[in-house]
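Subject: Protein record for review, amino acid sequence with backbone structure tokens
Why sent: The fold of this protein is of interest and is recorded here as tokens.
Notation: Tokens come from a learned vocabulary of local backbone shapes, not from coordinates.
Attached in line: The record itself begins immediately under this heading.
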Amino acid sequence: MSKQELIGKLNMQRDILMSLYQDPNIDVDVLKSSLYGAFCISGLAIDVLEEVDEEDE
């Protein structure tokens, strides 16, 4: 996965989480699954950025 693809996924996840945060009728299960998705994407971002750092060295 390229850095640009990762940035796109992170931006999309941020937009989804913001819309869920602003929805007063959000279902708890939907919120939980969205937070889990954000957790997974964040972990992936860390892995990719660490890999990029290693390549730069």
Observations:
- The mean pLDDT is 81.
- The radius of gyration is 14 Å.
- The chain has one domain: 3-56.
